[in-house]
Amino acid sequence: MKLKNSRLMLTIAFAFILTACGPVVEEESITAVGSSALQPLVEAAGEQYGAENVGKFINVQGGGSGTGLSQIAADAVEIGNSDIFAEEKDGIDASKLVDHRVAVVGITPIVTPGTGVTDVSIEELQKIFTGKITNWSELGGKDLPITVLNRASGSGTRATFEQWVLEEGQNSIITQEQESSGTVRQIVANTPGTISYVAFSYVNDDVEALTINGVEPTDENVKTNEWLIWSYEHMYTHGEPTGLTKEFIDYIMSDDIQATLIGALGYIPTSQMEVERDVEGNTVPVE
Amino acid sequence: MEEIQAKLLGNSKKGRLEKLGKTVSFICIAIIVFVVVSILYFVTSKGLSTFFTDGVSFWGFLTGSVWSPGNVGENGQPLVGALPMITGSFLVTLLSAVLATPFAIGAAIFMTEISPSTGKKVLQPVVELLVGIPSVVYGFIGLTVVVPVVRSVFGGTGFGILSSTFVLFVMILPTVTSMAVDALNSVPRYYREASLAMGATRWQTIYKVVLRSAMPGLLTAVVFGMARAFGEALAVQMVIGNAALMPTSLVTPASTLTSILTMSMGNTVMGTLENNVLWSLALILMIMALFFNILTRWIGKKGAMK
């Protein structure tokens, strides 16, 4: 009797498993992996896209720009998200990858409120992050030691910040590192005298964004390239996109999404940029 | 007669069932062994490729104190000294074990010897609850409560070995406590009775008889706690500061093997040196886990009561 019961249970269980696996409706799905800075946008767009197109799913995963680039280079996923150009990452064969610049993010230095410093020059930032300036009083602020907080090495935000603040071949001092922008903001907000950097969308009232040479970190200044520290958000595909991948990227690039979602999530639409930048950092005005 | 013989020796229904059971459990074991062996092989081969493929010297990796993968030092070797992380890992492990042991053993004595009923009703559920709290919660509390307290009491930024020690102390306390309770409970009742009968006080009985004979079990409990502290990643990463520097004091930012590992994973590309050295760190972690395992077995064997 017992045996019969357990057999019955097994049959039922198998029946459930089988139905779960079986084809119900025609579904299509693609996977986008990578940059945690770009993840919120792709997730929101993917959700909206899935709601408008029944049976089409966009799976979005984080993991970091390195993961995104290596997965797409290995052709293991459909879309690889990255904050940096594929050419900048060691060990990536960028020749087969097609770049789709879906948005732009500005990155700003942030400090704990109450340092007495609100404006710095690029040279001063450079000296702070290489350990040559160690007290806010040297910049005309309070007598308070400077604590430098970095993102993890290899993070897209850090790569962009260091590209525009540090000189070629210069390295930041070895110091505290955090994995995510959210944690960075929280630590900066609570630890007196701390300086770090985050994307514009992470700036809130708990931290103070610094101006650089008097230029405010605003979207407008990024569009005109007056604010130099910004980067593209890339969605890479292995070869020219086809099928659902193409549809989804076209969807993100569409005027509708560029005009609504991208701005709402704190990114800057690529189409509004007045300048264009290449891998080497050369900037040319857009006609 | 022959019929009975055939029935007894042949495949009966029960016999078939037993065979089926055996096969199923063998397959399960085989899968587990296969998975474990593959993991060991994968981590080892990946971890060793730092030394064989990228040509990093093994000694330089263990004793170097500059961690900056991707950059090359003056001698042409990549800057991948893991000593700061190794030191950090051992320091937080030892300190938290030292801090947790007296509390855990004290609680265990209370729960088994002094007031078993309160122990069962109140302490046991509390300890079990503590075991079930996810490490990210401990880390979050560490970040918002422990770090500011350490900063205002001991100075510095608050991030560092001291904060991690406090967080790990709370995390390993339940593990060590519940294992210590088991160790004390397994001391035979007649040991206590004999001791009391000979005129020993309760304290003398606890101190000289119960703790002595439970020693191997208590040591195993501490080693298990250390193993957990050594492998903890998330909570430590949130409060230690993650600066790959040799710790100069308990309140300066430091790092552990696990914190550097989880921080850098997503930003490296498979097959590059930056990725391979992370596997080497993972290899050290795995070897340490094995070491802790062997240590507990050895203690169990050595200390078994004869």
What does this structure look like?
- The complex is a heterodimer of chains A (287) and B (306).
- With 287 residues, chain A is α/β, with parallel strands linked by helices.
- Chain A has helices at residues 2-21, 39-52, 65-73, 122-129, 156-165, 181-190, 219-223, 243-253, 255-259, 261-264; strands at residues 28-34, 56-63, 79-82, 97-111, 119-120, 147-151, 176-178, 194-199, 208-209, 211-212, 230-238, 268-269, 275-277, 283-285.
- The radius of gyration of chain A is 23 Å and the shape is globular.
- By secondary structure, chain B is mostly helical.
- Chain B contains 13 helices and two strands.
- Chain B has helices spanning 2-9, 13-52, 58-63, 83-114, 116-132, 135-154, 161-185, 189-197, 202-213, 215-231, 234-240, 257-264, 273-302; strands at residues 67-72, 78-80.
- Chain B starts with a helix and ends with a helix.
- At the A-B interface, helix 3, strand 7 and helix 6 of A face strand 1, helix 6 and helix 12 of B.
Average pLDDT confidence of chain B is: 89
The span between the termini of chain B is: 52 Å
Strand content bin of chain A:
15-25%
Rg of chain A over CA atoms, rounded to whole Å, is: 23 Å
**Uncertain segments of chain B of ≥5 residues (pLDDT<50)?**
none
Overall morphology of chain A:
globular
Q: How is the largest sheet of chain B built, in terms of strand order? A: 1-2
Q: What is the overall pLDDT average of chain A?
A: 86
Distance between the termini of chain A: 81 Å
The SS-based structural class of chain A is: alpha/beta
Number of strand elements of chain B: 2
Overall geometry of chain B comes to flat
Main sheet record of chain A = 10 strands, mixed
What's the CATH class label of chain B? Mainly Alpha
List keywords for this structure.
heterodimer, A: 287 residues, alpha/beta, ten-stranded mixed β-sheet, two-stranded parallel sheet, 25% strand, globular, B: 306 residues, mainly alpha, MetI-like fold, two-stranded antiparallel sheet, 13 helices, 2 strands, 75% helix, 3% strand
